[in-house]
Every structure is written in structure tokens, then in C-alpha cells.
Amino acid sequence: MPEDSRFGPARHVTLPGPFVVDSGAVLGTVDVGYSTHGDPRHPTILICHALTGDQHVASPHPRTGKPGWWSRMVGPGLPIDTSRHFVVCANVLGSCMGTSGPASVDPASGCRYAMRFPVVTIRDMVRVQALLLDHLGVGRLHAVVGGSMGGMQVLAWAAAFPDRVERAVVIASAARHAAQPIAFHEVGRQAIMADPNWRGGDYYDGPPPAAGLAVARMAAHITYVSEAGLTEKFGRRLQNRPDGATGAKSFGFDADFQVESYLRHQGISFVDRFDANAYLYITRAMDYFDLGEEHGGRIADAFRGSRTRFCLVSFDTDWLYPTAESRAVVKALHAAGAAASFVELSSPFGHDAFLLDVPELDRVVAGFLAS
């Protein structure tokens, strides 16, 4: 098959507009950063990434050099098998890795959008993905797969484009945000906006609000791990100091405890690859997401008559999206007459378990995709 520039890792396309977002604002064109893996003649699987993820699902990240964020799941012979499936993953609308977002240049003004970028929703993200698939010549999808915010996109895909989705895999997610995730997101947003370098979002010609974004990441990361996991990994252990001592406390504001150093590292490393304004926009999109809102609060009505087969997975230590959230979606799917299976897996890793080494998850995903 001759090489086609549309396919491969680290791809980019500008989709013609106009594209009208749910808020009513209009984007003249939409840039999309995406990657593909496998043979486009094979059945297609769309992977939807989480809040701080991107399109580099199975190839090295161009900024960090680290392996793709799901390279343990996606590849030849892996649960999402690229020797049997054509895999597509796109950076979401509002993000900062090649897809239009607040850091993009507004063609009308020649300046960065910053906070003038329109508010976007999970459904807007999904509709951009659908336009990308049209560009790639993909009609019906063998499956849509995603965890966390990616799972929200999967649900939105199945609701908005039921005739295009054969299978839907929703991992560690929810049909709407409860108050607690919204509260943590608001803490993060306020940390960013309190940073003096934020300057109302117009910081692109100067230093970014790195301190605020790092704090936002630290607060969010606490929700991604379990209490048992943090206790086992760090406990109350103190840092080794340059003088070799480990027991005495400095009683200052240095990172005395190992868990403090860990969180600070998470924050500092994050600011090197993510845009603060994009964080504001995407967390707001997650908070606005409510699959049942346009159906009088009835999630089941979003899937009435759907032929899509669903698989939902939760983790017993996930307190960000606890198992009850997944059970509520399964109950709604069954009420709608949709085919849905569900499993709660045991893992010490909390919400982040879907990104880590959980062999039971591998078996569930591989079995469902092959069934």
C-alpha cells in the first residue's frame, strides 16, 4: 500500500470550518494533532485520552521523550492489538498538543486566543474527533476506548453517534461530575489564576503561571492515587538530607517528607508539557459534562435503542470515580435496553490504575474487543 501522509504517529491536520461549538461560538477552522498506529484497512479503534493526556498513546512523547502514555496497552500483540486493528488517538479540542485551544493563534487577529478561546464541551471534543475520522476515511468504529475523561468521551460518542460505534469501553469514569471532582478542579483553577504570571490568561509573551499550574497538578494528583498506595509507597518517611541525616526535622518549608517531594516533582514536570489555560478549559469541560442533562436528567434516554455493546470497568480503590458511578451508568444502559457488561477490578493504585500494570484490565479489554 502506498504511503499516505494522513497516517502515522505525530500527525496534524487543519479541518475546514466553520465549526460551531455548543456555546454558539464559531471557529473558522480547527487544527487537530493526532496519531495513528496499524493498517488503516483493519477495523478501527478510537482511543480517547484523559485530562492531561494527548495523542501520543503508543509512541514517544516529543517533549518528554517518555514512552506513549498507554504503550503497555496499545501495540502489536497487546490488548489493543495494532497488528489486527487500526488505532487512532487525537488531542482533544481545547488542549495544547497540536489541537486548537487557548494557546493557538486566532487567524482573525493573529494573536493567541488565550481566554478568548470559546468554552468547549466534551461533546465538542467528540464532534471534532468525528470530523477527523471523516478526513481519515473511517466510518464505523470497531470500538471507542477511554479512561477517566476519555471514558466521558466514549459515552458521548455512543450517545451522539450510535450508528458509528460497535463497542464502547469505559474505564474509571462517570456520566456526570459529582461535587467533589468539581471542587478539586476549582482548587486547581484558582491556583492558576492566583499566580501573578497568569495575567488574565495573556502570558504567552512572558513567563507562564508555572507555580499555579504546578499546584493545580499536585492537588489533582492526590485524587488519582489511593490512600493505601501513598501509605505503602511513602508512609511518613523523611527525605535523606545532604548531610546524610534522615531523622531530624528541619521544621521549615522544604520537602521534609518523601510524599511532599513526590508531589512537587509531579507538579514541576507537568508544567514543561502543558498549558495553564488549556488546563482551565478542559477541567471546565469535564465539570460541565452531564450526559443526562438534555434528557431531563435521565441518562438511559441518551442510549435508548442503541446497538452499541458496552463494557464498563471500575477499580475498588478509585475514590475520584468510585464504582458507584460506573454502576449508575450500567443501570441506565440496561434500562435503555443496551447490551452492557461491568466489572470492578481490585488494584492498589486508585484512579490511575487504568494507566498502570493491572493484568486483569488487560484481559478484560482484550476479551471484549475480540468478542
From TrEMBL:
The keyword Nucleotide-binding does not apply. Pathway: Amino-acid biosynthesis; L-methionine biosynthesis via de novo pathway; O-acetyl-L-homoserine from L-homoserine: step 1/1. It catalyses: L-homoserine + acetyl-CoA = O-acetyl-L-homoserine + CoA. It is found in: Cytoplasm. Keywords: Acyltransferase, Amino-acid biosynthesis, Cytoplasm, Methionine biosynthesis, Transferase. Its EC number is 2.3.1.31. GO terms for molecular function: homoserine O-acetyltransferase activity. The active site is at 148 (nucleophile), 318, 351. Gene3D superfamilies: alpha/beta hydrolase (3.40.50.1820). Pfam families: Abhydrolase_1. InterPro entries: AB_hydrolase_1, AB_hydrolase_fold, HAT_MetX-like. Residues 43-323 form the AB hydrolase-1 domain. It is an enzyme of class 2 (transferase). Belongs to the AB hydrolase superfamily. MetX family. NCBIfam families: homoserO_Ac_trn, PRK00175.1. HAMAP family: MetX_acyltransf. Homodimer. Transfers an acetyl group from acetyl-CoA to L-homoserine, forming acetyl-L-homoserine. This is Homoserine O-acetyltransferase. It comes from Sphingomonas jejuensis.
